[in-house]
Structures are given as structure tokens and as C-alpha cells.
Amino acid sequence: MHVLHLAKRSLLTVAAAALALTGCGDSGPDVPFNPAGTAGDLEAFNSTFESSTFASFSTFSLMFDAALAPAVPVVSASAAALDIRAANKEGMRAAAVRSAERLSSVLAAGSKSGMSASMAAVPAAAVGKTFIYSGGEYVVSARTGAPANGVRFILYAVDPVTFAPVEPVVETGYVDLIDLSSGSTSSARVRVVSGETEYLNYTVTVTNTSSGGRINVIGYITDGTQQANLSLRAALTFTGGLTLTYGADVPTRDFSIDLTLTATGLDAENATIEVTMDVRGGNGWIQMTGQFDQAGGTLSVSVSGHHFATITQVGAGAPVITGTEGQPLTDDDIIALEGIFYITNGAFAAFDQLFLPVGAFITPEA
Fold first, then answer.
1. Which residue range(s) make up the domain with 316?
2. Quick one: the chain helix, strand, coil %, rounded to 5?
3. Three-state SS at 259
4. Which of 101, 133, 196, 338 is the 20 to 30 A CA-CA neighbour of 242?
């Protein structure tokens, strides 16, 4: 997966730095900081995103909305792919503006129409159908097995480097999109299955008002051994901004990641992003807080409750990273802090990617 693999790499670099930070403090708010244990926690979380089935889902899910609602796609597959792959280079402000624009469009349509379950349901012609990949797109097939209140998309193998479909296609599993809408709440469940394993199961729920709305994504992901529970929430006001809350935990490790990004203003010129992130568990914690606007911004990074570094960025230039009291950091430290920064960059695009597969379900026509 493009974005969540990005987050995976970021967390690994954080783990690498943690091994070098034994002199930065000997206790957190609850337990002493254990660098090796934290590295193990991060590895357990990262492993949940490493299955080939998840990589296939990341590629083919970009095509679902075009198959279900070709006349009014939520976003083109090419544009979504660009968002995901460009998240690192363009930064969190660009990703936040894109997310805000997309979600504002979805919620505004629902506000004007009084979004109802009937308007958000699976297109009547698609209910109970199974879609297969053919000629570069998904088409309806005569295959059975799709959910009675949803649709099924067959998944295929992808190149692990380019994420392009392998030719000739090799079937690897399927995705069920299940309509759960009721009353004024639009909702759909996504299930990703290969063999006997359910690799991903989450629900997307949309509620809205005349001034904005909220989209929740709740569920889990697994590689077949480790499981991570996900809880993402985007709250948007048409005149104010967007707040993204990103939470993940690995129960077997008593380990969690909590990230809050608040974007004030919905345009590239005026958007300001406030960041708060915690990575913590039985082996200690890492925290990052700060703010960015068009001119740049500053982030403060703490390990075990003790200040460790400051990240400063001016405009679109490369970030400048300095240690406590301004002393230089090692190359490994700098790589690690850049990795933490990339988690925030990818969070908005990651939310978009989980929302995209059910966009045609829960986006009423204008």
C-alpha cells in the first residue's frame, strides 16, 4: 500500500532512532522508556500492513467507484494514486487541503439533498453482483457469492515494487462492500478476504449537518498473525476547517499510535495545520507537537517526556533539525525525525484511501 507502507517505513526509522536514545531520559509518564521494546512494538504494528493481499487492495480499490458510479465518480483512480504517492513530497498541508476539498464536496452534497439511506445505497443495477477486472477496469460478471446488500470485487496480484496489476492477471481474493445505511446515516462495510483469512474489515460512516459533518472509519487490519485496530475520524465544517484523528493499537503488544491533525482554513494559501502525535505502550513513548502554515512551521519532539529535538521548516524548503540546546544530531537521528514527519504527511492521504472504496456508496448525486 502506498500511504500505509509509507507510514510503516516512517515507524521503522523511529524505532531505529529509539535504539540510540538511551541517554535522553529514563522514564515516561507510566513506565521507563525501553528502546528495544519500542522497536518490537513498531515492528508488530508494521507487519499488519505487509501482506500481498493488502497491496492488491490498495491498487484495485482505486477503481471501485468508477465501476459503481461511472457518471459521478468520487475521484478518478489516477488522481487518487497521485495523492497517495505524492504525500511525502507535497507535505501535510497539501494533503489536508485535498482531503478537505473532497470531504467538503461529499458532505455538501448530502447537506443539500438531505442525505438518506435510499440515496446512498448500492446502485440498484449492481446489488448482489460480482465485478471482475478486465481490460483495465472492473466489469459485472455472472459469478455468484456477492453479499445480498452489497457488491464483490475480485482482487488480483500486483507487482510489489510498482503496484501495477500482474499480467496475465492472477486472482488472489476479493473485497465485499456492504451497504449498512439507515435513516440519515450513510454507512458501508469493507471486507478484504484471501483464502481463509480476513485481512481487513472496517466500517465507514457519514453523518452531516447544514454546516459540515463527520466521517468515521473503524475496524482492523491483519497480516494473518498480528492485528492492528484502526479508528479514524474526520470532522469538517464548511467555513472552518478539518480535524483528522488517527488512532491505531496492537492489543497483543499493548501499543498505540494517536495522531491529531487540525487544519484551519480550506485553501492552500490560508490553511494552518496543528499537529499532536503520541506513540506509546508498555515500553515508553514518543511525542511530537507543533504547527505549520504557508510560511513554514516548527515541531517539538520529546522522548520519554524529555525534549529531544526541534524541526523547523521555512516555506517549501527542506526541514532543519536540531537537538536540545541547538546541538547537531547524528544522521540516524535526523532520518528518524524525518520519518516521524512523514507519518503526519501520509495521514490525510491514508484516510482518503480507506474512504475511497465506498465513495460511490455514500455520496449522493447532486
1. 2-362
2. 35, 35, 30
3. strand
4. 338
